[in-house]
Amino acid sequence: MSKLTQLPAWRTLWNHFSRARDWHMRELFAADPERAERYWLQAEGLTLDYSKNRISDQTLTLLLQLAEEAGLPEQIEAMFHGDKINVTESRAVLHVALRNRADTPILVDGEDVMPKVNRVLERMGRFAHAVRSGEWLGYTRQPITDIVNIGIGGSDLGPLMVCQALRPYAHPRMNMHFVSNVDSSQLKETLKRVHPETTLFVIESKTFTTQETLTNALTAREWFVARARDEKAVAKHFVAVSTNKQAVAEFGIDPANMFEFWDWVGGRFSLWSAIGLPIMLYLGEESFLDLLEGAHGMDQHFRNAPLAANMPVILALIGIWYINFYGGGSHVIAPYDQYLHRLPAFIQQLDMESNGKQTLRDGQPVDFETAPIIWGETGINGQHAFFQLLHQGTHTSPIDLIASLENCSSLPGHHEILLANLFAQAEAFMRGKTADEVRAELTAQGLEGEALEKLVPHKVFGGNRPTNTLLMSRLDPRHLGALIALYEHKIFVQGAIWGINSFDQWGVELGKQLAKTIHAELAGKRGPAQHDSSTAKLIAFYRQVNGA
Ligand code: F6P
């Protein structure tokens, strides 16, 4: 048995759950008029209403006790201190250093990392200023109008999500494009929309070994050189962001055009590092620094607020309550904001690549559930697609409903409709609709007898479906920074309590290895390797169809 499942609070929580499983939130609200007052938290311009969860004061007390017994406060300190908490790779985990706007020293192997963090940040700022002001010119002496980011996973999703979320802050001359898929259609369609003389390619890869990114980068380079007809022009149009200087040089990008970061920055936590260069190019240095400020504010809140008033901790503990006790295996992210439409995809990587693990830090298998399946879409579109299942399906999935309070769009009337829908959904998920309420409604519509009774079961909503309502004062760089950091820390807390390493991702390796072998086989560069009959047949079929 794991240490976690032997903790006193874990056992007490199971006893408590045997009563809590029958609660209905309707009754919890009816019995406690102060509920919304108490289950309400504010930090760094974010407001969290967590009252619509199947929890009581006792549930929270026990969950907080679990966090203490699992050593959460010590683990938070270990991260901020630069301890090598990524045990399988023997690395510190210091995305918090990248946004340490207080500039207090943070040591890794006895070296304060802040001077190099600040140096890269300043270099990024100078470069972004040169490009945005038109001082940096392309090979025909024209200013840059288009940035093409080539990267995948953490080298794509973070910058992509932020650039789209903060589009109103973008430079009016600048168009931003993201290419991640090795399916050439994405690159081909992007190249149709840009001109070599005015395009800057940012090749982003922590390792600079990722096949998809290097393939796309090489094709983009060939496309560019074929048009510029001058290898030297590459220096004005290609920059790299990586931890691997040698691989960047071997690829053919001058290390003078490389922006560096370090192995203590995980890919999915890297948007705060030089991986944020496209953000800075598109939105400007000031917006990027505001993003860092917002995240730093949330870091301070996370490090210093008592656990009971700590937003990431509360979100994480409520998540653990559902995942480990109710057995809820999925979690929905539903932003009520079109600009945040890639937030679900971003959090999907952040959470599932971090905590999608089945091995404890000491190598033993877990004996409980870990990361939920994260999915989602903008809330309003979800309402007309998958919310049916969330309301009346057989799965119960907690939902984060996210919006900004301030109307940032200049078009009148829309924001109220959006927020009215969010609040209505949260209420509907909680309350549901009883058979008596349905009967009363149908009677008022003039139905009666058998016709009415036939409809009743279809129109009943069980309710009792948990939601967190998360409101940002406004969608701007600072509050977006705080929101992202909130989720990063929520995921950290869950991993810390479960006792897993949230900072490696060995699970993506096997597919990569096999793809290399199969790629050579598809191209006829090596004979058939040992495969199962299904894989062997698929390879043979492909080769036959393509005449290979
Ligand atoms: O395949 C998973 C992964 O390693 C992610 O963790 C990472 O964000 C992504 O690939 C891209 O890696 P890189 O930045 O090294 O190209």
Automatic annotation (TrEMBL):
Source lineage: Bacteria, Pseudomonadati, Pseudomonadota, Betaproteobacteria, Neisseriales
Pfam families: PGI
Pathway: Carbohydrate biosynthesis; gluconeogenesis; Carbohydrate degradation; glycolysis; D-glyceraldehyde 3-phosphate and glycerone phosphate from D-glucose: step 2/4
Keyword vocabulary terms for this entry: Cytoplasm, Gluconeogenesis, Glycolysis, Isomerase
EC number assigned by the record: 5.3.1.9
Domain of life: Bacteria
GO molecular function: carbohydrate derivative binding; glucose-6-phosphate isomerase activity; monosaccharide binding
Gene Ontology cellular-component terms listed: cytosol
Record: active site: 353 (proton donor), 384, 512
Annotated transmembrane regions: none
Known catalytic reactions: alpha-D-glucose 6-phosphate = beta-D-fructose 6-phosphate
Entry's Gene Ontology BP terms: gluconeogenesis; glucose 6-phosphate metabolic process; glycolytic process
HAMAP family registered for this protein in UniProt: G6P_isomerase
Family: Belongs to the GPI family.
Summary of the function given for this chain in its UniProt record: Catalyzes the reversible isomerization of glucose-6-phosphate to fructose-6-phosphate.
The UniProt record lists the keyword Protease: no
InterPro entries membership: G6P_Isomerase, G6P_Isomerase_C, Phosphoglucose_isomerase_CS, SIS_dom_sf, SIS_PGI_1, SIS_PGI_2
Protein name: Glucose-6-phosphate isomerase
Main location: cytoplasm
Alphabetical list of CDD domains matching this protein: SIS_PGI_1, SIS_PGI_2
Localization in the cell: Cytoplasm
